[in-house]
UniProtKB/TrEMBL annotation:
Enzyme class, spelled out: hydrolase
Record's keyword annotation contains Hydrolase: yes
GO BP: any one term: DNA restriction-modification system
Native source species: Candidatus Ligilactobacillus excrementigallinarum
Keywords: DNA-binding, Endonuclease, Hydrolase, Nuclease, Restriction system
Entries under SUPFAM superfamilies matching the protein: DNA methylase specificity domain
GO molecular function: DNA binding; endonuclease activity; hydrolase activity
Name of protein: Restriction endonuclease subunit S
Domain Type I restriction modification DNA specificity: 11-86
């Protein structure tokens, strides 16, 4: 999962990509979603269990929407999301 920058918004994305756009960013922090989909072992296990295909693994949008995703309060999401982003930036620099 990645956050699409404003300069890339509206551009075509490749096949086998899902575009997820939260309806209300007052209750869902984008950086928290990055952590959940890229760093959370619980979600990775759920995704692994529903992947389809032998050569190229895919997941359907309906399966993503049915993941057991628990959302903490927005302030906690922001703290977790910001920490995750800082960690990723540090990894890039080292």
């Amino acid at each position: 999962m990645a956050i699409v920058s404003s300069e890339n918004a509206g551009k075509v994305y490749a096949q086998r990509f899902l575009k997820i756009v939260p309806k209300n960013t007052d209750i869902v922090d984008l950086n928290y979603l990055l952590f959940v989909f890229n760093g959370s072992k619980l979600i990775q296990k759920q995704v692994h269990n529903i992947l389809e295909g032998n050569l190229i693994k895919t997941i359907k949008l309906r399966d993503v929407l049915n993941l057991n995703l628990k959302l903490p309060p927005i302030e906690a999401q922001k703290k977790i999301g910001n920490y995750y982003q800082s960690l990723k930036e540090y990894e890039i620099l080292t």
